[in-house]
Specification:
- 4 copies of one chain form a homotetramer.
- By secondary structure, chain A is of the alpha/beta class.
- In chain A, the strands form 2 sheets. Chain A has an 8-stranded parallel β-sheet with strand order 4-3-2-1-5-6-8-7, with helices on both faces. In chain A, strands 9, 10, 11, 12, 13, 14, 15 and 16 form an 8-stranded mixed β-sheet that branches.
- Chain A has helices spanning 16-26, 43-50, 60-68, 77-81, 96-105, 127-130, 145-159, 199-206, 239-247, 264-273, 310-322, 328-339; strands spanning 7-12, 31-38, 55-57, 75-76, 86-89, 109-112, 124-125, 139-142, 163-173, 190-191, 212-219, 225-233, 252-255, 284-287, 292-294, 297-304.
- In chain A, helix 1 (16-26) crosses helix 11 (310-322).
- Chain A has 12 helices and 16 strands.
- In chain A, 32% of the residues lie in helices and 23% in strands.
- Chains A and B meet through helix 2 and helix 10 of A and helix 2 and helix 10 of B.
Chain lengths: 356, 356, 356, 356
């Protein structure tokens, strides 16, 4: 990249992830949000231009349909791709796999989401774990919301030399709010048919050294996932030592029952009160006062905003592919500053267990 | 009020309504948000100062408890009241009734919410209906979310000479998101035991001339209320004539099924996409393409954001009590501009039924 | 039918309706439940034989798959049809339309469900309204749960000369419990896009003289539908007169708020306590104390168990097609006795508004 | 007890547990259901006599109120207690503690439910674990639904010498269906504030030798609890060996994903199809095909019907206190036969993992 020039970004797919990525890119000083491509012609597409972004159609046919619906369209996806350095694919699961050829023909760097297979890019990304190995690559995959949270937390324990093996139960929100009128589950719980569920092995695509087994179940709510962990540590440790390990991650935020943050809805309301767009919780929100150490065992729970948690990782992944910054920490700090990530959610020093 | 001086406001109670009122007051050029009073000491109180407002405790005891919890407190409610022109009471239902003596002793103008009785202030307020009758009064009551929507819509029909009588079925959200971990209903519907429900008579406290009967039922969702209406018009009318009547209100926004806004969750997502704080829907969101005229009968449905719809009314009520502006329309225009209310939600001319 | 011989019945499709029909047929003294046909091979099919019924496969291929799964299969649907007088089609929506040719080739009398069009049989059935016109016919359609409840209640008002026009808002349960793990809506309300919704016109396929308009909305619960009605009567009437009109139907059961039956879940629990299979509510459960008369207007609400309400109608429809009994009332009485329908749900004389 | 004489039982409290206990007692050949005591006067009380049982009022005042409501009342609780050998207390949490003095003064044997403390009786009961230690006691506590399931399953593993330690995550239904109109949580998850949750220590009141830690979370559904377990075994074992261990319990029923029993709602529907009263699932329903063994670790999940699982235990507890039968297995077999417990839920040999 010529010095001082901004990284030019296209977002393909303006869904729950795409619109958040586009908004986050627009907040980065070193990036320029060139345009968004999509296929729909209703209110969702209108939000692209309403939010000041350029709208492109996936094909000439889509462009035609969009214009017929009164949308202001800047051109086709193909034309958009001609103007950017990196494309972030946020199309629905398994569709990205078909787009990759297009990106490659264009010689573009690209990012796919966690719904795609590791093999589509050969690299799976979580900023605090393996940013460096993504430097200058053609492409990477930002792993799913669940996997991102797992790698963030277990990497923190591993860095502190505490992690032997981790066994988790994952409560997955059943559908996203924007499509909760056409899909979902009602008054039931739906276990993943297989144990282990795929998230454990998926975390190993980022860090093959993690000894992790997950079980997963769909629950009838739309707000966020909730993880419960039972960790065998390498040795007995104190609670403060464990909290200190988690504190080394800027993307794990402590919350506490004693501050009234007693359920998913309360934490989500906090995000809205903080004025975050879409009430995004980018962090793993981990209950610090609930966390329990029992000899060499560790038990804790945290909340994962499945719509938001991968957004900072995606921004870091963009920078890694471009390779201007050689240290993950630099990118992480830039991203965090732009998105308001890091530090206490409710005020310095409050809501944390008292140090003893 | 001395010319050029801003109206000084206190908000008593920082709950779902109070925090929205405080945020809306802060956006008005002619108002100054002096401080917020509350009784809690947890994350909810921390949001007051986090959002740049001054926090007061309801009593010296509350101030003490807040300081013990590490909160920065500016003083007591009593001290706050000494610095303002108008206090907006947003305390929980029926508590305001006890605060009124305090406000009166202070010689303050005050506003109570729809949970209180009409008799507490002797005046019930909906901006487009009876703003003028509130001018210079000591106090008014901003009616409830449901009643506000009823008066807005029926007033529009009445202005056009179309309204004979209206019969409505009101689907009420069961609890607010922020407290949905401790109250609510599950997988059931709970009819109000009495027909008519109280909303019809309540609308008559604003406009005694309305012939309106309501039936209400609690439904297991937290997003918004939904009203269905069957209206006997004074005469047969065309659909466009009815839509034109609704168009005379700047606080009724048309939405349409054909634009994909097919359910409460989709409309709420739209508000988040528009970047509105708390994804507030201040307008009555009325489905224009679903609306049906059959001879002299009219059928339609709309969505009511129970947390947000009364916010613009509250702002107008403040101005009415102060009496600087003598025309409701002026205040309404100022409030709308400050909050982004008015005009099409998704783009000029789109999402409306085609004129024939 | 030779005297003393039982009507031989096949049920095609063992879903929520089919299994209830099969169970109800088995309780009729004048009917013989010959067999059930289906296409699935899992636990649902196992319930057929577990409940003592004969299981048939829709095709030889299905029979093969069922046997491979260890199911005891009596033969094919075709073989089943050779042994019966009437087939009740309970296959999913729109599939019955394809089966009709098969039934006709066999010279069988048949019944389809409300998901099919009126034109498939040319006759739509609700026992208390038009039983006589179904006598000796080849086929009829038992209308949907919602429509059945509408015709039952409005027919009662019409018989008493009270009905001018009826306007209803229908809250529809979003999915059935047994499939609530794979479909549904979550924390939202989904209006039917069109007003009027189809139930009004559908009621007119049974009784063209009904002046009825309906609006419908899907709600996030699985238990039952709930209807709210606003009726213009032909003249002012007293509440007792209206209740007496409803009392002429043995399939409208009064419930009351004052007895604690304050929501759908409570009524459903009552059905379970009564020991009814599947906690079936065959009646329209109408809140008698909530019902309100205001001059010549009438307002009321009732609950409709969408899985159960059509079961007694289906039994009566079978008898009507066979034509042995020439009076609807005779069949209704037989069906009611066999299913425990009729009389007070909670005890004679209790739970009803006091007569004045 | 004189030979041939039935054990005479009173049930105090006709709620979700009480009504099931009363129904189950009525099915036992060696027991006589003398009467039920309660305090309410609405439909719930009417079900007592509707179901052929005698109704008593908790106090003379309650008797008066019941009679005023038209209920047929046989007398007071005190009078009821004079006619029985054992009273099963099914009053709401913490109320039983106050009743105990009354029972003791009467010299009655009594059973309290899991909501009470262990110390109220000094003995906590799960039939397959410690039936013998309850023989001839004055009283015992049937532990809660969650604890019952934990003890049943871990006892089976322990008997086989496989259990070292067990770590569980418990998803708790938020409220019971019959009161879901007045309590519950909506679209959120509510973690228990403390780790470990109380169920682990509670299991140790039955078997102090269990090394068990539990974490619990309230989920927004009403059907049943769902447990996920991660067990450290004493040694590597095969899956069949583990299944065989569970097969030694007649109150653990295998279900399987491959049979379509893929979620709580499907299993509950199965219970309704089986014709069980209230669709009761008395067994721990454990997914056999989902269960996973990995070296010396074991992972599995099961469903717990919180309204029904303690019913067979309560019946066995009655017999233990009376002491006529000296072997737990005899009582368990009698109870199982009377309630239809034991054997495959859907047919012999089906729905089980293939033996290899």
């Amino acid at each position: 990249m010529p010095e001082g020039q901004k990284i030019r970004i296209a977002v393909n797919g303006y869904g729950v992830i795409g619109k958040r990525v586009a908004g986050a890119v627009a907040r980065q000083q070193d990036m320029s949000m060139i345009g968004v491509s999509d296929v729909v012609t209703d209110w969702r597409a209108r939000m692209v231009t309403k939010n000041g972004l350029s709208l492109f159609g996936a094909t000439p046919e889509h462009v035609g349909a969009m214009r017929a619906a009164g949308l202001e369209v800047a051109g086709t996806l193909d034309e958009l791709l001609g103007q950017v350095d990196v494309v972030v694919d946020c199309t629905p699961k398994h569709i990205a796999a078909k787009n990759i050829d297009l990106y490659r023909r264009r010689g573009l760097k690209f990012i796919v989401q966690g719904g795609e297979k590791h093999s589509t890019t050969g690299h799976s990304f979580v900023a605090e774990s393996n940013c460096v190995s993504a430097l200058d690559r053609e492409a990477t995959r930002v792993v799913s919301c669940n996997t991102t949270s797992i790698v963030r937390t277990l990497t923190a324990l591993k860095r502190a030399g505490l992690l032997q093996r981790a066994r988790g139960t994952l409560l997955r929100r059943a559908t996203d709010p924007w499509e909760s009128h056409e899909s979902g589950i009602m008054n039931t719980l739906v276990p993943e048919p297989e144990i282990p569920s795929h998230q454990g092995p998926d975390a190993q695509t980022v860090d093959p050294g993690l000894d992790v087994v997950t079980m997963a179940v769909k629950v009838p709510e739309t707000l966020a996932h909730l993880h419960y962990w039972s960790v065998q540590m390498t040795r007995p440790a104190g609670k403060e030592e464990v909290l200190d390990a988690f504190r080394t991650s800027s993307r794990i935020a402590f919350i506490s029952m004693s501050e009234g943050l007693v359920a998913l809805n309360a934490v989500k309301e906090l995000m809205a009160d903080l004025g975050r767009p879409h009430a995004n919780l980018y962090e793993v929100a981990l209950w610090a006062d609930m966390l329990r150490v029992q000899d060499d065992e560790l038990f804790y729970a945290y909340m994962v905003d499945n719509q938001a948690i991968v957004i900072p990782e995606t921004i870091d992944a963009i920078r890694a592919l471009i390779g201007e910054l050689r240290e993950g920490a630099e990118s992480i700090a830039m991203t965090n500053a732009a998105l308001g990530v890091g530090g206490s959610l409710i005020g310095a020093g409050v809501g944390e267990p008292v140090r003893r």
